[in-house]
């Protein structure tokens, strides 16, 4: 590959994860993970329960520190930086188990995002826009704890967008969300992609993964075992083996 080709390739990559490792007292949760997340696309990260997907998200967002490996974002290695630093560089995420404030209203939850780089007035305007975006405006003064589970997920999603991030990591956005809310969430995800954002989704719902992702990465036992287009992944022997071979609990078809 010529030098110009290499540059062109790098320009297409939003996040370049190189040989990431994390061991929890002997459990190799992430054991040499490589991901090249294409810029401006929706990608999926799948794998059986316990394969290291959430740990990877935690490593990418600074929630935990990698033992080794690189995470290149905009030409800079961000591996091991504090979460707020990574957040400020333009990466945001939602959690598998939502982390909204139950005792704050929807509006307050949005404003509670710390390390915003914008003035309060601008933050309020953005909060209003985002409530509209996720159709929660009517619930603006409702306490987080009174929202349905799906609505809490929408709120957390909106909260993640308060910083106007470049890269959005979503950990199981579909889990426990009813079909109507899920359709609305997926529409929003596509709208974000159309504005140039990069999205990476961890998800067990294969309909979401196969119908909405441009590219799919598959993890098993902390390493990525396959990547490709949805149709390639669906027919990949190693992926089928990972899901149905040794891990009968994996909810591949849910
Ligand atoms: N803080 C921790 N301490 C010890 N072990 C952990 C910790 N976090 C994760 N693990 C272990 O690391 C492995 C990977 O877990 P992880 O949560 O990343 O899996 P996952 O792919 O997100 O699974 P799921 O699909 O069930 O959410 C598991 O064996 C898990 O028990
Ligand atoms: Mg997980």
Description:
The strands form two sheets. Strands 6-7-8-3-9-10 form a six-stranded mixed sheet, sandwiched between helices. The chain has a four-stranded antiparallel sheet with strand order 2-1-4-5. By secondary structure, the chain is an alpha/beta fold. The chain contains ten helices and ten strands. It starts with a helix and ends in a 10-residue tail after the last helix. Helices cover 36% and strands 24% of the residues. The longest helix is centred in the C-terminal third of the chain and has 16 residues, at 179-194. The structure holds adenosine-5'-triphosphate (ATP) and magnesium ion (MG). Magnesium ion binds next to helix 2. Residues 24, 27, 29, 47, 49-55, 96 line the site of adenosine-5'-triphosphate.
CATH architect. name: 3-Layer(aba) Sandwich
Portion in strands: 15-25%
First-to-last CA distance:
42 Å
Count of beta strands = 10
Helix content: 25-40%
Count of discrete structural domains: 1
Shape: globular
CATH superfamily: P-loop containing nucleotide triphosphate hydrolases
Could you state the order of secondary-structure elements as H and E?
Answer: HEEEHEEHEHHHEHEHEEHH
Main beta-sheet strand count, sense and barrel state: 6 strands, mixed
Bound molecules: adenosine-5'-triphosphate, magnesium ion
What is the average per-residue confidence, as pLDDT, rounded to a whole number?
A: 90
The order of strands across the largest sheet is 6-7-8-3-9-10
pLDDT < 50 runs, ≥5 residues: 1-9, 250-254
The DSSP helix count reads 10
Give the CATH topology: Rossmann fold
CATH class: Alpha Beta
Structural class: alpha/beta
Give Rg in angstroms: 18 Å
């Amino acid at each position: 590959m010529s030098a110009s080709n290499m540059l062109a390739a790098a320009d297409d990559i939003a996040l370049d994860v190189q040989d990431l490792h994390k061991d929890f007292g002997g459990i190799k949760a992430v054991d040499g993970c490589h991901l090249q997340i294409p810029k401006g696309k929706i990608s999926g990260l799948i794998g059986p329960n316990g394969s290291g997907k959430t740990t990877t998200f935690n490593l990418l967002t600074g929630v935990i520190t990698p033992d080794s490996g690189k995470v290149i974002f905009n030409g800079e290695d961000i591996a091991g930086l504090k979460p707020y630093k990574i957040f400020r560089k333009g990466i945001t995420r939602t959690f598998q188990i939502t982390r909204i404030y139950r005792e704050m209203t929807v509006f307050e939850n949005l404003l509670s995002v710390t390390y915003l780089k914008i003035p309060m007035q601008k933050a309020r305007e953005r909060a209003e826009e985002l409530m509209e975006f996720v159709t929660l405006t009517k619930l603006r003064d409702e306490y987080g704890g009174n929202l349905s589970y799906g609505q809490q997920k929408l709120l957390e999603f909106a909260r993640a967008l308060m910083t106007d991030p470049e890269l959005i990591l979503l950990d199981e956005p579909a889990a426990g969300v009813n079909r109507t809310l899920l359709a609305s969430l997926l529409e929003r995800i596509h709208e974000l992609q159309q504005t140039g954002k990069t999205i990476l989704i961890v998800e067990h719902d294969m309909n979401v993964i196969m119908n909405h992702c441009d590219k799919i990465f598959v993890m098993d036992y902390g390493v990525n075992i396959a990547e490709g287009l949805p149709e390639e992944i669906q027919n990949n022997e190693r992926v089928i083996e990972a899901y149905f071979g040794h891990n009968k609990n994996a909810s591949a078809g849910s």
